[in-house]
Write a structure and sequence with these properties.
Blueprint lengths: L1 E5 L2 E4 L4 E8 L7 E7 L6 E6 L5 E3 L7 E6 L4 E6 L8 E8 L13 E2 L3 E6 L1
Parallel strand pairs: 2-11
Antiparallel strand pairs: 1-3, 3-8, 4-5, 4-9, 5-6, 7-8, 9-10, 9-11
Length: 122
C-alpha cells in the first residue's frame, strides 16, 4: 500500500488549505486513515482520524477549524483546514491502518505517506 499526500503550501494566517491523500497498491487493506503533523523540533502528533464508517476524532487544537473526510470510491482522505494559524505549520503526514477503529498513537498505523509541508505565515 502506498499513500501519496498533496495540497500543502504557504498560506497566510486565517486562510485555508485542503490536503489530499490517495491510497494505492492494495487500499482495501486500509480502514482507518489519519493525518499527523510534525513541527520542527516537535514530536509527530495526531491531527485527525477517520474510520471506514466515518467515525472521527480531532486534536483539541484543531476542533472547529479542520475537517477530515474520505471518499472510499477514490481511496482518498481529505483534510480541510480553515482559519489556519502559524502554530499549524509543519509537515503533514497521511497514515493508514487495517483496523477499523480510531487509533491515536503513531505506532498504531502501518502505512505512511511522505508528508506535505504546510506553512502558515503571520
Amino acid at each position: 500500500v502506498q499513500l501519496q499526500a498533496s495540497g500543502g503550501g504557504l498560506v497566510q494566517a486565517g486562510g485555508s488549505l485542503r490536503l489530499s491523500c490517495a491510497a494505492s497498491g492494495n487500499p482495501l487493506h486500509i480502514n482507518t486513515m489519519a493525518w499527523y503533523r510534525q513541527a520542527p523540533g516537535q514530536q509527530r502528533e495526531l491531527v485527525a482520524a477517520i474510520t471506514s464508517r466515518a467515525n472521527t476524532t480531532y486534536a483539541d487544537s484543531v476542533k472547529g477549524r479542520f475537517t477530515i473526510s474520505r471518499d472510499n470510491a477514490k481511496n482518498t482522505v481529505y483534510l480541510q483546514m480553515n482559519s489556519l494559524k502559524p502554530e499549524d505549520t509543519g509537515v503533514y503526514y497521511c497514515a493508514g491502518d487495517s483496523r477499523d477503529k480510531i487509533a491515536t498513537l503513531v505506532l498504531d498505523y502501518d502505512y505512511w505517506g511522505r508528508g506535505t509541508l504546510v506553512t502558515v505565515s503571520s
